[in-house]
């Protein structure tokens, strides 16, 4: 499959993925949100149930405290009063008195209706406590309806009891959760369950939510709330209903952005190719001043891109794009061709320097040496000093291999410079790895110069370092007389910048070299006219 085709297919895949991403994320988030909502509802329901059960327990214990007034009184004397108390207070099925395990008096059945076990339809729990309560599946009189019995036993064997009808609790549960299909279970003291909701086991599906259990801090009451899958599904559907339109908008936006990004990527590559074909690139040359020779002894080649409408694209933009799009090698080869053509028109002394910028990808390319050698052969009649400028902007991975190639080219008479020194992450390691001849100080450090007799610590340190390593130093971006003099005083041998000359096209360079190329640069003079002229 040709690479172009493969890229396009990959692009479609990327657009589809970008479109799906918000949808998938949305579905996941809403599922989590639905679970959270349902869980909160479970907690709220359980807490409401507990609160109601606690209120009923409070009533029951209050009633038992009230019954204390009938202590030592025979059932015949209190029967009517008991009946009235039992009937007039909410929640109660019956209330009464105890003697040991025997029920001696009941608001429902009068005197001596039987034992406590017979009334509860089970043995009383062994709690060892004078106050206890337990949920039961029914009572002697109403065996099929759950209830809760509250008992207080006095040390003298007498006691009081109250039975709350479970119907009140079941009604409350129904009101809370019947419409939502909740299954709710309440137990007092691990007694019989009082339940409401569907009795069947919920199917084991992903949508099943965990039962929520809660206990009262005041009484031995526990509740459990189970939510059916349909509730979770409903909550999910509601969340999706709100979220899906937003997700759809996000999907469309993301697809448009991805498509634009892909188009831009493809268009940079295509545009650079087209621009090379249509000769929209040209080379500008910026003169370099030699302090020793006191005249221009070389130039740096800087690529320019002129659009047919007269606009230009900044080199830092199209060079970065070419590096990212894998176009820097063809572009540099194009630069070398343009330079070779221009150089044929030059009238310069042998040894005149021509510096050219090289990107890391090209240095690592297997045909790098051949490319440079071809260029050198094409301009060999001019006997130029070719300087290869490495920049730290993009990292050179295979340092040893690149160093070997550079050494080979050095043996054939070329020089190597490190460009924009100090701005990257690996300035010092480059000094150690590569066979360098020149160090070009970035204009950021030159801009820091404030006074001729003062210090510029970092700049001074770089200059000293270069001298120690026996590298020749070039100051880049020199714009003022002060900067020029400062560098001159500190033994910087080459100067490049607007103060000396701006980058210019080939025709203007030839004229400039003729008129000003041999003139010394004097710091005291005003160079305004010279700069504008160039
Ligand atoms: N403010 C200021 N700027 C000054 C002064 N003197 C020169 N300059 C600018 O500083 C840049 C020097 O080039 P660079 O550091 O190699 O930085 C270059 C270089 O890294 C890259 N570049 C340019 N042409 C090529 C090329 O053919 N190949 C590669 N790989 N990179 C290139 O693009 C960068 C920017 O290039 P340009 O825009 O041409 O910008 C040039 C030049 O116009 C000055 O006194 N003041």
TrEMBL record:
GO terms for cellular component: plasma membrane. Keywords: c-di-GMP, Cell membrane, Hydrolase, Membrane, Transmembrane, Transmembrane helix. InterPro entries: CSS-motif_dom (IPR024744), Cyclic-di-GMP_PDE-like (IPR050706), EAL_dom (IPR001633), EAL_sf (IPR035919). Its main location: membrane. Residues 265-517 form the EAL domain. Coiled coil: none annotated. The chain crosses the membrane at residues 239-262. This is cyclic-guanylate-specific phosphodiesterase. It is found in: Cell membrane. It comes from the Bacteria. It comes from Pantoea phytobeneficialis. The keyword GTP-binding does not apply.
